[in-house]
Design brief:
This protein has about 300 residues and is of the alpha+beta class. The protein has two domains: about 170 residues, Cysteine proteinases (Cathepsin B, Chain A); about 100 residues, Alpha Horseshoe (Serine Threonine Protein Phosphatase 5, Tetratricopeptide repeat). About 50% of the residues lie in helices and about 15% in strands. It contains 14 helices and nine strands. A hairpin with a 4-residue loop joins β2 and β3. α8 packs antiparallel against α9, α11 packs antiparallel against α12 and α13 runs antiparallel to α14. The relative contact order is 0.09.
Length: about 300
Amino acid sequence: MLLSLVSACTTPRQTLELRNNPPAIQPRQELTHTPFFPQTEYHCGPAALASVIQYRDIAVSPEQITPMIYTPGLKGALQVEVIAATRRFDLLPVVLDGRLDSLLREVEAGNPVLVLQNLGLDAYPFWHYAVAVGYDLEAQTIVLRSGTHKRLERPFDNFERTWARAGHWALVIVKPQQIPITADAERYLSTALEVEQTGHIESANSAYASASQRWPDNLLALTGLGNTAYALNDYVAAERVYRQALVLSPQSHQIWNNLAYALARQSKAEESMQAVWQAMLLSPHNANYRESAEELKHLLGVE
């Protein structure tokens, strides 16, 4: 029993780090214009998600979101369903790195953060979604839109314990033209790829464009930008981006192959065939490129 009491009184690690080494952010912030929807029983997920989506100037209510994410048998919503529902509004759901200082930096940058908490015990969990909208470094408190409370203030250590029991899960939801302040290239581009794979091509294209501006030497960002431009029938843009990518990676046979198709769609027959031959030269045992060559010949009407 003594060990349990000692553990309960110990300051959580991230709170202690913030106390000893405060992040280089303004001492307090509160996103007072974040919408608030009082939670009905077991519907904290729809209420919290509607709050963050409406913050992005999209009119939506918890009642509209409930059938998208609520699972009656669970009396709640799974994170994967929350993320999938976000994409339906052509927004980017970017999962944070699980650090409290990252969460605070996002709030400082004007991004409310959707968080999952376990308000119960590990053995008897009580899952709860809330929205972090403010903080005070001096007072060591965080401000939440939570349940029926429009402004629930909690000490960092109390919040961290409940957040840690839910795996430090936090989600920033942004428009495709935006990148969360703490997102790294890998995390952001993974989100953009998921958006692309679920058929939201225009949103993915905007996300890749934003990524290529922040990380101009990132091959995945350029490839994604080229592929989505091609899917949107913007073959001139696709060619331009593929050529940028080849400056970074001239030995990429996949990009040479993709460039061949972008050129063919512009009736640039000679350049298209040269590009696909370059792909075959770099990967001579890849049957896909031989098939590409035959397909391009047919498309271009050449022998």
